[in-house]
Write a structure and sequence with these properties.
Blueprint (H helix, E strand, L loop, with lengths): L6 E4 L5 H12 L3 E6 L2 H20 L8 E5 L5 H14 L7 E3 L19 H23 L7 E5 L12 H20 L3 E6 L15 H13 L3 H4 L3 E3 H7 L4
Helix pairs in contact: 1-2, 1-6, 3-4, 4-5
Length: about 250
């Protein structure tokens, strides 16, 4: 996929991985639309993405990208529907080529949330954001995506290797990976779980990689990786590094 002709939608784009992805896809020349609940933080992320796009254009590595933002809450399907409408209209041609359903919450520090002690409201909000929010994003976007479009959902080892005290967050990640695999068998578009390892974000324990270090992993999954390699699969750092080792 040539990103200079593509439209990319990133949810949860005001911080962490989502913020890094806005800049990375913009630097490739894509029309990029990001969303977040915090409008001020989103504006800062959009400014960074526009700066990355401008720098790439000046270096001749990409054309100047279009970067737009929408204040939206993925827990509300009306917000997601509006977000998708904006993204559909943003690029030079209709449609959304890549969706990164990145928005997520984690309401307790790692190791401090035994599942049987999770309050009902905190459990419900985690599932509503981390699982239903991804479902809503995919559901609303699919009709606007070409058959070769791609849906990328970040996850982590906690989805398959459970640790004590990870609570509703671990449950939501296990469930969302099942959702991605179901999408892979039900729709024409490629649906992929992307596990970048431990990344230094507000949701992670300290000591992870900088989000900008793993952003290119998502760009690869959106462009160079073939559907046969990644559709319905869990792509981790080792997979990405093996695939790009010859560069």
């Amino acid at each position: 996929m040539n990103l200079t002709d593509a439209t990319v939608l990133v949810t949860g784009a005001s911080r962490g991985i989502g913020r890094a992805l806005l800049a990375a896809f913009a630097a490739e020349g894509a029309a990029v639309v990001g969303c977040a609940r915090d409008a001020d933080a989103l504006d800062d992320a959009l400014a960074d993405a526009r700066e990355a796009a401008s720098a790439a254009s000046e270096n001749g590595s990409a054309s100047t990208a279009t970067v737009e933002g929408v204040r939206a809450d993925v827990r509300e399907e009306s917000d997601v529907a509006h977000l998708v409408d904006v993204a559909d209209d943003t690029g030079e041609r209709d449609g959304i080529d890549v969706v990164v359903a990145n928005a997520g919450v984690k309401h307790a520090a790692s190791g401090e949330a035994p599942i049987h002690e999770e309050p009902y409201d905190r459990f419900d909000d985690t599932i509503r954001t981390n699982l239903r929010g991804v479902f809503a994003t995919a559901k609303e976007a699919l009709d606007r995506m070409p058959n070769d479009g791609r849906i990328l959902v970040p996850s982590g080892a906690i989805a398959v290797d459970y640790d004590p005290g990870m609570g509703a967050y671990a449950v939501s990640k296990g469930a969302v990976e099942s959702l991605v695999r179901q999408l892979a068998v039900d729709v024409e578009q490629t649906a992929t779980i992307v596990d970048p390892g431990l990344v230094d974000t507000d949701l992670s324990a300290p000591g992870g990689r900088d989000p900008t270090e793993v952003a290119q992993m998502f760009v690869w999954a959106a462009t160079e990786a073939t559907p046969a390699e990644i559709d319905g699969e869990r792509v981790d750092l080792k997979t990405w590094m093996r695939a790009t080792r010859s560069r």
